[in-house]
Structure formats: C-alpha cells, structure tokens
C-alpha cells in the first residue's frame, strides 16, 4: 500500500510539472491577453509592429487576429473582404462629427446577416437610451444653473442616441474592426487589402474568453488619446452613465466558424460599450453574449 501511494504521488507531481511546462512563456492560468493599441501608443508604431508579426507567421496554423479598417464599412462589404477567414465578432460605431459615439460588439456566425441583425438590435437599444435621457431631462423641474446644465446634457445625449438609432436602421457604414481566425496566407492577403489598415495576429490567444481586443478607430491616426473625447453624461439615477463594470469575457473558444448554427433562430444581441471612456474592448463572441445594459451606456476596458 505504501508503494502504491508513493507511485501515485510521483505520477501526480510529474503531471503537474508537465502541465506547467506546457504553458507558453509568460502565460498563466486566468491571464488575459490584450490585443490592439493602448492609450498613448502611436498608431503608426502599432501598425508597423503588427505588419512585422504577419510577415513572421510563416507556416503556422490558423491564428486569431484583430483586423482594423482604414474607414467605416458597410455590412454588405464584409463577405468579400473577409473571404477565407472565420469571423467571430464585429465592432461598429456610428461616426458622428460632434460626438464620440458608443462602440457595439456584434457576435457573428454568418455574414452579413448577423451584422445587420446586430445593428437593428443596437438601434432598439439607442431608442431606449433616448427615451431614458428625455425622461431624466423632463424630471428636472428647477431652473438653476445645475439644472440647466443637466437638462442640456441629457437632451444632447438623447439627440445623439436618436441619430445612432437612425443610422443603424439604415445599415450605415459603421464597421471598423473584426476579429477573425485564419491561416497565415489569408491574414497576409487581408493585410494587403486597401481597405484594411492593420492585421494584428495574436497566436498567443488560445481562447477568446481570455482575450481583450482594442482596435483603433479609423480617425485615430497619431496617438490614441489617454483621455475621453467627450464628457460623461451626468446621472440622476443609478443605471444611467453608470460606473464601469468589469470586462465581459467570451465563452467561445478556438472552434469558430462563419456558418450559423442550425439551432440559432434569432440573432444574439450585441454588447454595448460607453463612449465616454477610451476604447478598450473585451472579447465576447458567442451565440448568447451577455448584454451590458441597453438602456444606458455600459463598459469598455490593449496589448
């Protein structure tokens, strides 16, 4: 019995040592891999580094990658653009000249249908935000300086939400980034496409629930701002412009395909992130993603 116990202990220790050696260097259980550009980083430097990574992939197998675009694209342009790649998620934003609007993350199995459905769902979310901001504005009965300031802020936020809703319903050119999984030659081809700005391969990503993606916006051409480009909308209630919660991870792992599962009959709602903080997007690509709260701006958190 003693000999059997010693043998079992030896086998267990050996297995633990083997498992520890199997972890990639610098990667530990539960560690989140950040892919993209961070606040204060040069977008040009990020682009050059990503280009070098694509060139050195060699004959590696299929790899996760963050693909960012030079300009905002329509959902209908994505199938031809991303041919040969399995698409996991799409990032959209309505580009308005006077506001930094919210970023919407849309899980994708089939292009362009899932993106269109996600944009329609986002439009409903913006309708709810507009109604909530208008309600808060009307609830202000005073005429003091603070009340006037709050009322103006809520009314401005309501107008922005209404513009976003209208743009999404019209199928706007709002897509600016995509997360894909593809072979090195497909990623190289994408990097050479005129509409594609950066292909950032992430071979260190083993599963999307352990990754956060931070794509630069098309208009960010120099350095990513460390401060938000628009002030937060003040709130009278918990639920509007609420504090930033923790990032929502994805439940999808390596096996991602662009074909819709037969069991899926309705489009999953996209996850919405606030416009009042620098853009940092955690991964959340699955058939039933967690919804961050559509009646209010919610959260976003770079490699």
Features:
303 residues, three-stranded mixed beta sheet, six-stranded antiparallel beta sheet
Explain how this protein is built.
- The chain is an alpha+beta fold and 303 residues long.
- The protein has six helices and nine strands, in the order H-E-H-E-H-E-E-H-H-E-H-E-E-E-E.
- It has a six-stranded antiparallel beta sheet. It has a three-stranded mixed beta sheet with strand order 1-7-9, with no helix packed on it.
- Helix 4 runs antiparallel to helix 5.
Instruction: State the share of residues found in helices, binned by percent.
Output: 25-40%
**In total, how many beta strands?**
9
Q: Which whole number gives the mean pLDDT? A: 74
Helix run count = 6
Strand content: 15-25%
Measure the end-to-end span. 52 Å
Shape: elongated
Task: Sketch the major β-sheet.
Answer: 6 strands, antiparallel
| SSE sequence, one letter per element | HEHEHEEHHEHEEEE
Class of secondary structure makeup:
alpha+beta
Q: Summarize this, please?
A:
With 303 residues, the protein is α+β, with helices and mostly antiparallel strands. 32% of the residues lie in helices and 17% in strands. The radius of gyration is 22 Å and the shape is elongated.
């Amino acid at each position: 019995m003693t000999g059997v116990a010693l043998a079992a202990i030896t086998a267990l220790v050996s297995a633990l040592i083997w498992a520890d050696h199997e972890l990639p260097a610098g990667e530990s259980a539960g560690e989140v891999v950040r892919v993209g550009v961070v606040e204060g980083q040069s977008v040009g430097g990020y682009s050059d580094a990503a280009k070098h990574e694509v060139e050195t992939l060699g004959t590696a197998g299929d790899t996760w990658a963050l693909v960012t675009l030079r300009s905002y694209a329509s959902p209908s342009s994505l199938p031809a653009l991303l041919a040969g790649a399995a698409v996991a998620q799409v990032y959209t934003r309505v580009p308005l000249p006077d506001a930094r609007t919210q970023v919407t993350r849309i899980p994708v199995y089939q292009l362009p249908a899932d993106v269109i459905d996600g944009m329609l769902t986002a439009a409903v979310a913006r309708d709810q935000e507009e109604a909530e901001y208008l309600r808060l504005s009307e609830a202000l009965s005073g005429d003091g300086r603070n009340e006037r300031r709050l009322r103006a802020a809520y009314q401005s936020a309501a107008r922005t939400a209404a513009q976003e809703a209208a743009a999404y319903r019209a199928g706007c050119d709002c897509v600016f980034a995509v997360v894909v999984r593809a072979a090195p030659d497909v990623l190289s081809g994408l990097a050479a496409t005129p509409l594609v700005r950066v292909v950032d391969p992430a071979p260190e990503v083993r599963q999307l629930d352990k990754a956060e993606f931070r794509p630069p916006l098309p208009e960010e051409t120099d350095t990513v701002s460390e401060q938000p480009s628009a002030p937060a909308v003040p709130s009278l209630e918990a639920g509007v412009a609420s504090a930033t919660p923790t990032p929502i991870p994805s439940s999808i792992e390596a096996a991602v395909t662009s074909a819709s599962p037969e069991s899926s009959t309705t489009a999953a709602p996209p996850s919405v992130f606030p416009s009042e903080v620098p853009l940092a997007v955690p991964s959340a690509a699955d058939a039933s993603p967690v919804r961050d709260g559509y009646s209010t701006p919610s959260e976003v958190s770079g490699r």
